[in-house]
Design goal:
Helix content of chain B: 25-40%
Structural class of chain B: alpha/beta
CATH topology of the largest domain in chain A: Rossmann fold
Largest interface: A-B, 42 and 44 residues
Distance between the termini of chain A: 33 Å
Number of domains of chain A: 2
Strand order of the largest sheet of chain B: 3-2-5-6-7-8-1-9
Shape of chain A: globular
Number of domains of chain B: 2
Oligomer: heterodimer
């Protein structure tokens, strides 16, 4: 049997409650040899099985350089994600992956990079941000624009604070109007409008992920700022099931998110039916 | 193509030989004259059907429901299957297997369950002589006879069959039955050609009024916003019959089930006609409206699949027309879209 299709067993080593409905899980492979040889690129995804409940797709949210474990960040939204939220440290789940393409890291180098994340959509950008920062000299400016619905919905708070402190990163954080509280020291406004205020140069490369509606309006704003469609990159999370191009669930037109993506640029997306 | 002649009685001997080799499924007519597929062990006979069977052949390779994993377990969930032969695959059925092979065997990942059964199969094609009123294979580049994609192909002629050899597997089987297969004569082959021309003319004639002005892709490229869709979707009750009976529809669902001391993962047919098909966790649904799902089926068959594999995922078998309780006729829908 094709060994890529057989789930590995991973153990939950640590759990971090990011927000009221998002948890990050640190996972360690039971088979140490598989764990040592496991490699992936930022943007790739995996499938996590909760035994007896089901399997769901998540991006790997830790960078490849963090060895011995991987992380996934899970927002409670359905049956499988609810079961993942019920897991305790030491529990075991199934793991398949890595699958899909990855962010075009080589071609990003030498340019200004604008990361635009919304809510849990920062998860797929996080490994790319860390990788970019570890190769900091290879890039011009690095912008991070991150927004959440409310202050409570902000993920990776410590890392955002760490990036904000760096003088080689320009970070702007925002919450939707009404989502602020008395402690809030960031912007108030929707992510696409904050992007327009930041106004990065149009020859930058923009990498975005968030709710579909945010991705769509981020593209509209980027377009207004003069970005070429091919310079706006996103990762799509259509309903994937098998992860390997067989089950027919995640197609957008003739493309399959699982095997042709999940990373697409807007030149590709605009040539497909408006179905994401 | 290598061709032989097999008399009527030698075909029976050949089927009996095949049965010793593994399971044998043949086309059979029921009391109402409908063609179905049954085990040869039940029928003891083979009635040359002259047309595709009511049911598609996909369940032989892609089960409606099967267990694909059991855990915790270290055993392979793939059950070795017996060799089997299907006698009676029409041209449209052969095209459907070609489409399924593309998806399940020729991508980055193979479906090991499909592959196992495909490897064990011997596909014997037939030429159509009695096409149904709903047949339109010629509109999607398929012939009403076994043109390719078979191991052996049978054409009924006077006193027996012309047998064409379409694969290495077919050649081996013929080689093991040398005494039965006689050389095909010019006369046999010209009878075969006559059968083919006659049937092709019949299907061409009944399909003429539905012929598109250009390629299907050029039609679909202009059709997405056409008004004809909303009129045609009116009688759709979202039952999914057209997709379950479609010989090329291959979407599936994976779900987990708890048994006494183990867990099983099951793979089950699914269809894009159902509203929840593309819905994501959190509730967003890219094809929330029925009309979007309705169009998606046509676009997948006539445009998206073609872009990936250079042939349509519709075989012109007409099963969806027969199965639809809303009397939706794919040919008529496409005709209206072409016209406007």
């Amino acid at each position: 049997m094709d060994e890529d299709l057989v789930p590995q067993t991973v153990r939950v080593e640590a759990i971090r409650q990011e927000t009221p409905d998002v948890r990050s899980l640190r996972l360690v492979f039971e088979d140490p040899e598989f764990g040592r040889e496991f490699s992936f690129q930022p943007g790739q995804f995996c499938l996590i099985s909760v035994y007896g409940v089901g399997e769901a797709v998540f991006c790997i949210s830790s960078p490849p350089a963090w060895k011995d474990f991987i992380e996934v960040s899970v927002k409670e939204a359905g049956k499988v994600t609810a079961a993942i939220h019920d897991l305790d440290v030491g529990d075991r789940v199934g793991f398949r992956g890595p699958y899909g393409n990855s962010f075009p890291y080589e071609t990003m180098q030498g340019r200004t990079i604008v990361f635009v994340g919304g809510g849990i959509g920062l998860a797929p950008l996080r490994p790319l941000i860390w990788q970019t920062l570890s190769d900091r000299a290879k890039f011009k400016d690095i912008h991070i624009i991150y927004g959440a619905r409310t202050v409570k919905d902000i993920v990776y708070k410590e890392e955002l604070a760490e990036w904000q402190k760096r003088d080689d990163v320009k970070l702007v954080k925002t919450v939707d109007p009404g989502g602020e509280d008395e402690t809030w020291d960031g912007e108030v406004g929707l992510v696409p409008s904050v992007l327009e205020e930041v106004n990065p140069p149009a020859d930058s490369l923009l990498v975005t992920c968030g709710p579909p509606v945010m991705i769509k309006f981020t593209y509209v704003s980027a377009n207004k700022l003069g970005f070429k469609p091919s310079d706006v990159i996103t990762t799509l999370e259509m309903k994937m099931k098998c992860g390997v191009g067989l089950c027919g669930r995640c197609n957008i037109g003739s493309r399959y998110v699982c095997t042709d993506g999940p990373v697409f640029n807007f030149e590709e997306i605009l040539s497909l039916p408006d179905e994401f | 193509m290598e061709a032989h002649f097999l008399t009527d009685s030698d075909l029976v001997s050949f089927l009996n030989w095949l049965e010793k080799r593994g399971d044998v499924y043949v086309t059979a007519r029921d009391d109402d004259g409908n063609v179905g597929i049954k085990p040869y062990s039940e029928t003891g006979d083979f009635a040359y059907p002259g047309v595709r069977a009511f049911q598609p052949l996909k369940p032989f390779f892609f089960s409606a429901l099967e267990e694909v994993a059991e855990y915790p377990s270290t055993e392979s969930p793939i059950k070795e299957s017996k060799p089997f032969a299907i006698i009676g695959a029409a041209g449209c059925d052969l095209r459907a297997i070609e489409a399924l092979d593309k998806v399940f065997l020729e991508g980055d990942f193979k479906d090991p369950f499909y592959e196992e059964r495909r490897n064990k199969s011997l596909i014997i094609g037939i030429d159509c002589t009695e096409p149904l009123e709903t047949c339109f294979c010629v509109l999607v580049g398929v012939k009403p006879y076994a043109e390719k994609g078979f191991d052996l192909g049978l054409v009924k002629i006077e006193g027996g069959y012309v047998v064409e050899v379409g694969s290495e597997k077919g050649k081996v089987v013929v080689g093991e039955n040398k005494g039965l297969f006689k050389p095909a004569t010019e006369n046999h082959l010209s009878q075969r050609d006559g059968v083919r021309k006659k049937t092709t003319d019949m299907v061409e004639k009944q399909s003429k009024e539905f012929k598109p002005g250009g390629t299907w892709q050029s039609v679909m490229a202009k059709a997405y916003e056409d008004n004809a869709w909303s009129k045609n979707v009116e009688t759709c009750v979202e039952c999914g019959a057209c997709l379950f009976i479609c010989p090329t529809c291959q979407c599936f669902l994976l779900y987990d089930q708890k048994t006494k001391d183990k867990y099983k993962r099951l793979k089950m047919w699914d269809t894009c006609a159902y509203r929840s098909f593309a819905r994501v966790a959190g509730g967003a649904n890219p094809r929330d409206q029925l009309i979007e799902r309705f169009k998606h089926r046509y676009y997948h068959k006539f445009d998206y699949f073609f872009k990936n594999y250079e042939f349509e995922a519709c075989t012109g078998c007409g099963r969806c027309i027969v199965a639809c309780p809303g009397e939706i006729d794919m040919r008529k829908v496409l005709k209206e879209i072409c016209r406007s």
